[in-house]
Amino acid sequence: MSNLDDRDFGENFLHKVKEEKLSPKPKWQFLFKNSLLWGLGIFSLILGAASTSLVFYMLKSEDAGAYSRAGSGMAETLLFVIPFFWIICLAIFAISVYYYIKHTKKGYKYSARSIILVIIGASLVLGGIFNLLGIDRFIDDTLGERAPFYDRVINPRLKYWSNPDSGRLSGLIISEINPLEYDLVDRQGDDWRTLLSPDEDDALMVVGHPVILVGKEAGDHQFMVREILPVGPGRGFFKRPMLRHAPRNCDTDKASGSCNLPMIIPAPNY
Questions:
Q1: pLDDT given at position 11
Q2: What is the pLDDT of residue 195?
Q3: Weakly modelled stretches of the chain, pLDDT under 70
Q4: Which of 31, 130, 218, 254 is 20 to 30 A removed from 19 (C-alpha atoms)?
Q5: Sequence-ordered list of residues with C-beta below 8 angstroms from that of 135, at least 6 positions apart, any chain
Q6: CA 131, CA 96: separation in Å to the nearest integer?
Q7: How far apart are the first and last CA of the chain?
Q8: Where are the domains of the chain?
Q9: Could you give the angle at the alpha carbon of 193 between the alpha carbons of 187 and 196, nearest 5°?
Q10: How does strand 263-264 pair with strand 191-195?
Q11: How many Cβ atoms sit within 10 Å of the Cβ of residue 66?
Q12: What's the confidence (pLDDT) of residue 251?
């Protein structure tokens, strides 16, 4: 560009500044924007790390063999074993971190590869720390107790294990009728009489605690138990008040099995 062109450009620029009364933005606005982007990036990274820890929590708490014993095939088992919800959340937060970093003042200096590697490394390290501290379980318990559609979207395993017609029943133990019979309230708040075989280990059948049962229906709201499994992720769901209000009390008449009095058991402590 010639000196004449430079002069014309400068004059045109000055003319435009005067005509539109332009003025430079104060430095604090740039600093605020940069700080805000970094803050949002760090916040998204923490959320991503929490998602990573919940992926770890879901995977290590799962018993893939239980699905096959309950009659599920490989495809259906993978559908429930893999925590898709938290993997999707992790991807969203990772993309958010990348976006915020690239839009900071010096973000253009970092290559996409280096940013992605840092995000992955930080998410794994922080996610592992959250896992060791039990933060992942706390988050899952809180969401299970309060989040809408938890059993359908966040943790659809609960819905899977709530299908008595297919030999799967999960719920909260509300009373012990005798060593082989327990009363259980399921995910929908319906009451079930669960029947154990004499050789069944009933260590997990504790009043006030949730369980997963594999077996078959044996009549109207009766369930023959073949296997008892612990409830891992999703325990908080059974702390919801609607599941602590049993529709009947089977402690009143063990001889006749009459169950007609309302009962409220204390909130589960597990």
A1: 59
A2: 94
A3: 1-25, 28, 30, 242-270
A4: 31
A5: 50, 53
A6: 22
A7: 76
A8: 27-133, 164-264
A9: 110
A10: unpaired
A11: 17
A12: 44
Longest dimension (CA), the chain: 108
CATH tag for 164-264 (out of 2.40.50.140, 3.40.630.30, 3.40.190.10, 3.60.10.10): 2.40.50.140
Residue 9's pLDDT is what?
Answer: 54
- Amino acid 124 reads L
> What pLDDT sits at residue 252?
40
Q: CA 256 to CA 22: how far, in whole Å?
A: 89
Q: What's the pLDDT at 256?
A: 40
Question: What are 138-159's pLDDT values in tens digits?
Answer: 999 999 999 999 999 999 999 9
Structural contact between residues 192 and 223, judged by C-beta atoms closer than 8 angstroms: yes
Residue matched to tokens 């998410």: 123
What is the C-alpha separation between 43 and 113, in angstroms, rounded? 21
* Residues ≥6 apart with Cβ < 8 Å to 246: 174, 175, 183, 185, 191, 262, 263, 264, 265
3-state SS, 42-105, equals HHHHHHHHHHHHHHHHHHHHCCHHHHHHCCCCHHHHHHHHCCHHHHHHHHHHHHHHHHHHHCCC
For residue 174, the SS3 value is strand
DSSP state of 158: H
**Long-range CB pairs of 156-163, under 8 A, 24+ apart, other chains included:** 156/80, 157/80, 157/233, 157/234, 158/187, 158/234, 158/237, 159/187, 160/80, 161/70, 161/212, 162/186, 162/187, 162/188
Length of the chain equals 270
pLDDT attached to residue 186: 92
**What is the rounded CA–CA span in Å between residue 75 and residue 82?**
11
Q: What angle do CA 126, 132, 135 make, to 5 degrees?
A: 75
Amino acid 114: pLDDT = 92
